[in-house]
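Protocol step 6 of 9: fold each sequence in the batch and record its structure tokens directly after the sequence line. For illustration, a two-sequence batch is reproduced in full.

Sequence one:
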Amino acid sequence: MQLPHDLIGSGPRKVMVLHGWLGDSTSFGPIRPYLDTETFGYAFVDYRGYGEARDTPGEYTVGEAAQDVLDTAEALGWDRFSLIGHSMGGMVAQHVLLAAAERVEALVGISPVPASGVPFDEQGWQLFSGAAEAPEQRRAIIDLTTGNRLPAAWLDAMVDRSVGRTDKAAFRRYLDSWSGTDIHDRVEGSTTPVLVLAGAHDPALSPEVMKDTWLQWYSRAELEVFTDAGHYAPDEVPLALVSHCEGFLRR
């Protein structure tokens, strides 16, 4: 399956950009005007159940999404490419890496889900699992993971986009997949260059979690922390995000 996608830039260095659980490809809108389109060519994709693929049927798993990403790269004629994955997109990117390591030049994770998945306590699971049907729970998640510090109008806009551009059933099934999947023993020791970007105000996928997971399992991983961001760096610190991502990928 070739995923719906926006192509930005015509540079020789190709990059697949993979969105998170609560947003679609448009969640990267704040960074798009500042990309180096002469060096890089970016494809911003929508998984099944999201955005322009909202009505596309599927199993709605991170493994399926990874295969769709590879199919899309094939359709674009991209033999080699890098991956940028936000949140759930970080887990999808790792599945792409496992399926086709020889095609992946580098991987950037933005507050990325670790290869071990995410364990929840009972209260946390109720909050996340109920978010498919309850917009107010999506809002609570976004507020929590950005440190309860951002404007109400921004929270409302994030929820409106999330609800409007996701299929409820797909949204709920992806949660089971990205939270309950554990592939860390399969990625451990990987020599693919990895940059992990974490927000200091994200209590869920914090810098400490990144150190205990990603940096333990990838031999060429490095960590950068945004001191003025939580989980949503594309919105919170778009210029710094572009600078870090492209600086790393140029290397």
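Sequence two, same batch, same settings:
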Amino acid sequence: MKNRIFFILISLISLTAYAAKPAIFLLKNYHQDIPVTGWLMSEKLDGVRGYWDGNKLISRGGKILSPPAWFTQNYPPFPIDGELWTQRADFENISSIVNSQEAGERWKQITHQIFDVPNQTGNLHKRLQVLQNYLDKNPTPYIQIIQQTTVNNKKQLQRFLHSITANQGEGVVVRDPNQAYQTGRLSSALKLKQYTDTECTVLKVLPGKGQYQGKMGSILCLTSQGKQLTIGSGFSNKDRTNPPLIGSEITFKYYGLTKKGRYRFPVYLRPFNKP
């Protein structure tokens, strides 16, 4: 009985740590044939999404974050959306701070890098100006507006991407500045990343769940460096119905390595040597 009561109490405590998932915009992938001249580009920061609803800080998944009171004391009374971030190639440290209930002074490493101001009228420039006007009167070192640069041509965009990824950055975001604020996955907000690809040998086909019930969910494979990894994205419905054979080689892409040497965001590309 005591164990049951304890479980209920823990469950209630957990429930209070979550709110409804915020209505936010999400990025689509950039393609070369999309005209983006005149759009704005900025660095895609590898942090934790942080949505301030005017009262509390919430993650993309709806978790209510627990920064110290001094961190948010000069936050605006209106929503802002951005990335909780420290520096490049520091995601694991950022995540450990943001997701802790007792990070305390470690929050001094974090800045809230803002890329939009929801619920405000006008284009992106005007929405960001609303926040800038507020910060001019209520300065805080923990809120910074992400620098936006106009895209003059695709070569400039590619040079910008290369300069970021060459210095351990994640990638670039390009946005149509004339769009009013919208939520959902937008064609007016795109992400560009550079990735590395390599091969691995399929060790096991793992069953799917939910929409992939009765099909392949992911595969366990082994690289020539002796590293095992699970790949669950990048597969078509045809691939999931007829998965790669055990013992066959596939090519996958990834976005760098974690501090523990694991592949970041591995995605299936194709059978090995197939164009």
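Proceed to step 7 once all outputs are recorded. Observation for sequence two: Confidence is low (pLDDT under 50) at residues 1-16.
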